[in-house]
Write a structure and sequence with these properties.
This protein is mainly alpha-helical. The protein is built from four helices and no strands.
């Protein structure tokens, strides 16, 4: 013989000290995509250096693919940033210097893609290698300026 239990009364404990759980602040997608593009551009510098030491066409092909992937990520970052602004989502407004620095790095990377598309060793080694290095230097300076501005804004000065 089975016995069934039934609930006749439900009581809920009410605590007035309960506060809603605060949602963690999410990082905008465009910032993550910018990080990916910077990583691709750094990889292009590494493969350009490898091509300089070992002139195998494989390294040149890796470089152009990494540059193009970085440019695609930069384009996606721009699109997602514009969508966030248009939708009225709260995004950290960038200071002009990091925004301009990133735009300069992307323009240099686009120029680098055209340089890498030429044929032969001389397409990469003098000009392409310097452009890849310059893109990384601009990105590093942009990141440093961005961190300095963020710290100044956080301190309130």
């Amino acid at each position: 013989m089975q016995q069934h239990a039934t609930i006749t009364e439900a009581t809920f404990i009410h605590d007035t000290n309960l506060r809603p759980i605060r949602k963690p602040r999410r990082r905008p997608i465009h910032k993550m995509l910018v990080s990916f593009s910077a990583a691709y551009f750094a990889g292009a510098l590494a493969t350009d250096l490898a091509y300089w030491q070992m002139p195998d066409v494989m390294w040149e092909r890796f470089s152009i693919w990494l540059i193009v992937a970085g440019l695609v990520m930069a384009g996606l970052a721009t699109i997602t940033y514009v969508i966030d602004l248009a939708a009225g989502r709260r995004v950290d407004m960038p200071a002009w210097s990091p925004l301009v620095g990133y735009a300069v790095a992307v323009a240099l990377a686009l120029t680098n893609a055209f340089v890498h598309s030429r044929d032969g060793y001389t397409a990469v080694v003098p000009t392409g290698l310097m452009l890849s290095g310059l893109v990384i230097v601009v990105l590093l300076l942009t990141a440093l300026v961005g961190m300095a501005l963020a710290n100044r804004h956080r301190v309130g000065g």
